[in-house]
Amino acid sequence: MERKGFIALLNKLEAADLLIVTKLDRLGRNAMDVRASVERLASMGVRVHCLALGGVDLTSPAGRMTMGVIAAVAEFERDLLVERTQSGLSRAKAQGKVLGRPRSVDAQASKLVVERRKPVAALAREYGTSRQSIMRIRQAQTPSLGS
Description:
Elements lengths: L3 H9 L5 E4 L9 H13 L3 E4 L5 E2 L3 H34 L12 H9 L4 H8 L3 H11 L6
């Protein structure tokens, strides 16, 4: 409902109109969004047909059931993907792999950044990194006053 084009479409539709979409993903970003869009259109009296599902009317009982099954399968696939991703990350950590972005400054240079009393901008130029990276290194290496 946040897409300008979709809002413009809603403003042009009237009761008893027929909206034909090629695929369900044209109605929303996820299964719940698609369902909400179809329900809103149905409440306006607009029928929605999806060509990818054989032209089924999504506002009919059979169409709602088909949409429910597809939504359940999509949610199941998403849950499996999350589970596999978490498993892969855990396995990589157990094997000692370093996750995340590579450091812009290695450990030895990080110690020098903390020890040297040069301005942040000068150190950033010297090590070929951003000022924010230098400040982050200094903050991580310097114990806080409250601890």
